[in-house]
Amino acid sequence: MKFLVDAWSAGARAGSLILGELQLETPCLLMLTKKGLPAHITQDMLDDLQTEGRAMQISPIEFLESPPPKVVAAVGGVHKYLYLKKSIIVAVARNQFGLEADGLNGTKFGASFETSAGRRVVGPTKYMEAVNALRPDIWASLPDEVPAWATPKRHRMAVDRTLQWLDECLSLNAVQDDKVLGVVVGGASVEERKRSALETARRDVSGFSLSGFGLGENHDERGELLKSIIDNLPEEKVRHISGLGMPEEVLEGVAAGVDLFDSTYPHTLTMKGFAMVFPLSMEKQNGYYLEKKNGHHLSNGDMKKKNGFHVSNGETAGVYLDPSKLDMRSYIHRLDTNPIVKGCQCYACRKHSRAYIHHLLNVHEMLAQTLLDIHNYHHYFSFFRAIRESIAQDKFESFRNWFTSRSYDNTTVDPATYKESYMDGLLLAKN
Amino acid sequence: ANMAALHFEVLARSKLARASRLTLPHHVVQTPMFMPVGTQGVIKGIANDQLEELGCQIILANTYHLALRPGADLLEQMGGLHKFMNWPRALLTDSGGFQMVSLLHLADITEEGVTFQSPVDGTPMLLTPEESIQIQNKIGADIIMALDDVVKTTTTGPRVEEAMHRTLRWIDRCISAHSRPTEQNLFGIVQGGLDPKLRDQCVKGLVERNLPGYAIGGLSGGEDKDSFWRIVAQCAAGLPEDKPRYVMGVGFPLDIVVCSALGADMYDCVYPTRTGRFGSALVPEGVLKLTNANMENDNRPLDESCSCMVCKQYTRSYLHTIVTKEAMGSQLVSYHNIAYMMKLSKDMHTSILEGRFPQFVQEFLQKQFPNRDVPKWVRNAMEVAEIDISIRVQQLARETFLIQDNWRH
Ligand SMILES: [Zn+2]
Ligand SMILES: [Zn+2]
């Protein structure tokens, strides 16, 4: 594993992670998986997504019982087992779908996880059995993750245990490769974070995984925590973070010098029926849904009568106060022949209308999740690409400022404007 | 009713079986063919590009469900179901009647139509033959189905006769209500329960109407298999040679092979996709239950003879860990099962073209029944289809035994 920093911009860095023949441009998003595969996107569709869709994060905790590690080992690891030949697989203990260790049931022998076989304590031996069977491209050591609100004493213990488990994982590493990320913990304590970073950096690791974020820490203190960690990590090694998800959070992490992210955000939106539509660059706002168009307006009442709609109680007129995402469940999409985002090159936008995706959600068809996941990942990959470009051009700070201020501005726009433009959209859709 | 928006050409015959080319407004399809069911305008978990990749030629959508959501008027406004779901190939819609009778408790059939309680607000509603056709005209499928009076196959007595006569009366109402005969093909449905006389009367009545195609309805409802194939054989023999024949609701691979041997062309069923979601894969040997514990250590593909994306990429062991648990499990096994049904259809078509359909049937049965215990009803049907399965089955059994023997060493 080789990591090269190519450009710096206001603390943020753009680099390349080279793993044999595969290469990853950073900062980048790792796709979340369930049992090693994206939740709803099959591989043939993944090919069509973007090259970034080739970087995935898996959890060794999902490979403890079924399939048994020996079955995965027998075929030569997870790349072969799941036909992920061209994918970069990053193994991190934390299950991204919310089954992370909560720290409360852990012991000195291991962290506690909810697995397919019930709750169980997983120690370094069991953990490394899975890692050695999976043979991922990069893997993080087993952390003792605790929520931010745990006592200072518990956080101190977590740092000690995580260091001890790191040493054990390193000695249990069957191939003694250079693919190891040491995990940095310490909750919301600046002192413990610093100690964890310094001690981890002393070990023979190729990079770091910043753990325990998104577990209840105060957002105002996050910047300081990130700084206390990264100031104590060597510059030439790659940094991964778990638990930063929203675009603004990602920008905060990038600003601090983080390279790899495992955001749950795109998939969370999908599961709630939302599509990501925020603009991706300062020059080109793709907020066409905000455009004012001429034409007479139909009131909701007219629409209902005209089309004989049965609007069930669960449906409400969608007035969007948040211009960063569309609620695809809202009935206002039902006649909209536009794609989610005009000009988006993803499969969902090239092939299908908002009306069809709305229908699929309405009748609980799982292709809705597939299409939304494809779009949301595509869109978030494009966001990361925009971040990389801004760093390469040394414009990261203005990109970040523009992005965060844009979110603020648009939420204050008069709701009636949105409603109006949507009704115009409906009218256009009908012509 | 002598207008048709299709062209049907029988390319080759093998005794009663036929391989044909059916040119529909949106796609040219080959028969025998299986049509996957996309109830709500989507095959569960499978994208359009994947369906094309799988070789799906036509999708069946359910009028009853589409009329509820998103609604026929909306579909018409959007330019029809083809445009709405962006499916470039052929579509078929059912009449909606069967769905009502089978899904709703309070459906009642009168001369006017099917009365039922609205699932939205419980008010009494009526689906007439005219309305069924109007809705299907709005949806715009290549093939639309007449509203028929469906009775359970296990029903006996005067109700069966009444249903048959009503089906014939309703076909005329369907024909006169059909507003797009040059763009959509109205198929009539043969009813008459398990009574050969009634079936015969219905076939004759429908054939007089000179429809673009015919379906054999009212089967696959729990009747015994011997009655099932005999009705299919009788109807197929009575229907015109130059029109497609569609056996409704049939989807077990064995049933499809038998019906094709008896001269039927088209089939539909939710079975392959539904059973896939429950973790069962269709393979030449029958059904592979992926939930079985012995799959955990099995690093073979679902079906070694299948070239689909799933068989190329995943092992039984992996699929065992995700079926019935993850959405991906349903997606992948359904995908393979459709691939299996498409290959089965294509193999039948090709073997008829190449004059080796009897061998195809023999080999198919040999794999499904390696112990030579081919069910009596299949043997009876093959006798009528003039396909000799006795000699070949024994001979193949010996070959397989030798192959298995080699494997052991
Ligand atoms: Zn898109
Ligand atoms: Zn297959």
Automatic annotation (TrEMBL), chain A:
Domain tRNA-guanine(15) transglycosylase-like: 11-406
Binding note for cofactor: Binds 1 zinc ion per subunit.
Domain of life: Eukaryota
Alphabetically ordered keywords of this record: Cytoplasm, Metal-binding, tRNA processing, Zinc
Entry-linked PANTHER family: QUEUINE TRNA-RIBOSYLTRANSFERASE ACCESSORY SUBUNIT 2
Family of this protein: Belongs to the queuine tRNA-ribosyltransferase family. QTRT2 subfamily.
NCBIfam families documented for this protein: tgt_general
Descriptive protein name: Queuine tRNA-ribosyltransferase accessory subunit 2
Organism: Riccia fluitans
